[in-house]
């Protein structure tokens, strides 16, 4: 059998091809996959969290409480089943500006236990009752400080763009979850230099949920997401 030889011209062709097609792995500038989640309450009914996980959902914000006394009747079930399905979880409180911050804090903390690996707690602040704006900054700060003391982590603020610009510009030290729809990127309210979560849809559909659901995006990489979790 004659020995196999490679001509100089063939070697040159192979060298040029290799230089023209570098490996795709570890290439800087590649777009990171989006980290998508949903927020739910009793209005979503029975949720199949395993199907959500299979559909690519990473995290779930679960409504826990509202005002002084209301507690979502599906919270305990939703929170536990989302965790069992391997989803990252958080809980949110709908803040009522005409209720005392301490009683609202008690309502939430007596219901919600957060652990290592969970997202920080969320305060949903998006409406005012008549003339409550005069004490809103003081009362909301009291509530946020109470959350941080109880859970040992800075809470997240959920709000809309217009409300944020009018009433909560002084809270930009907290991670922002902004609600804004029909855009390719959210608009930052005054005070904030970045957003952490963006509720980009109120009418998303997914296997595992009957009807529509709010959909959210995280602003960052998987490593950034991991840093945000309770330690």
Task: Provide the descriptors you would attach to this structure in a database record.
single chain, 231 residues, alpha/beta, TIM Barrel, 8-stranded mixed barrel, 7 helices, 9 strands, globular, disordered N terminus
Kindly describe this structure.
There is one protein chain. The protein is α/β, with parallel strands linked by helices. The chain has a single domain (33-228), classed as Glycosidases (TIM Barrel). The chain is built from seven helices and nine strands. The protein has an eight-stranded mixed beta barrel. Strand 1, helix 2 (49-54) and strand 2 (59-66) form a beta-alpha-beta unit. The longest helix has 19 residues, at 133-151. The chain starts with 7 loop residues before the first helix and ends with a helix. The relative contact order is 0.15. Residues 1-30 have low confidence and may be disordered.
H/I helix tally:
7
Q: Name the CATH superfamily assignment.
A: Glycosidases
Low-confidence stretches: 1-30
Q: Average pLDDT, to the nearest integer? A: 89
Strand share of the residues?
15-25%
CATH topology: TIM Barrel
Distance between the termini: 67 Å
Tally of strands: 9
Roughly what percent helix? 25-40%
CATH class: Alpha Beta
**Most strands sheet:** 8 strands, mixed, barrel
Radius of gyration (Å): 23 Å
Across the major sheet, the strand order is 1-2-4-5-6-7-8-9
Structural class: alpha/beta
- C-alpha geometry: globular
CATH architecture verdict: Alpha-Beta Barrel
In total, the number of domains comes to 1
Q: What string, H for helix and E for strand, traces the elements in order? A: HEHEEHEHEHEHEEEH
Give the assembly state of these chains: single chain
